Give the backbone structure.
Amino acid sequence: MKRIPILMWPIGGILVLLVIVALFLFRVPRLVKVSSKTSAWRPGESLKICDIRYSQDYRNGEGKWELKAKEGHFFDKTQMVALKDVLLKLESSKDRSFTIKGNEGDYFRESGEIILRGDVMGRSTNGYQIETSLLIYREKEEAVETDKPIRVIGPFFEVRGDSLYIDLKERTFTVKRNVLTTVNKGDFL
């Protein structure tokens, strides 16, 4: 067996290191890509929140509302939270609740108003359903209203119109303009 001169060992070691480095560079995925999604802040935004859940009691604990959203942007100056994929649940102590869903929404902390927009759908536990594009919940008045076209579906009727006011304390609703009512079943006449 032929001996390798000691002078060649460092050169051989350097070649082995170069081969290892070359293999590493060609086998490891590139980390040079820069994400095209940037987390741009909106003007005036002070906080971005994900998976929001917020609840508030009213009428001295006799009722409560709960707000859920996938994402929210808090604006400190106006005390407003802009929300995405919103669910608002209004509960009373009499086993009645009303759940409203919307694509977007705004919660104004100082005035206690919650505005839901985009394919707004509301359902009550006693069988009523509301469909519209905009709905406003006012905590102080315990009322829900809109001036957009609406559709209210009940157990035996359907009402369409151009604006709605729901008084949650009195448990009444009023459709204000261009009202069309259809009675679906029952002995009406």
Notes: DSSP finds one helix and ten strands in the chain. The chain has a mean pLDDT of 81. The first strand starts at residue 47 and ends at 58. The first helix runs from residue 9 to 27.
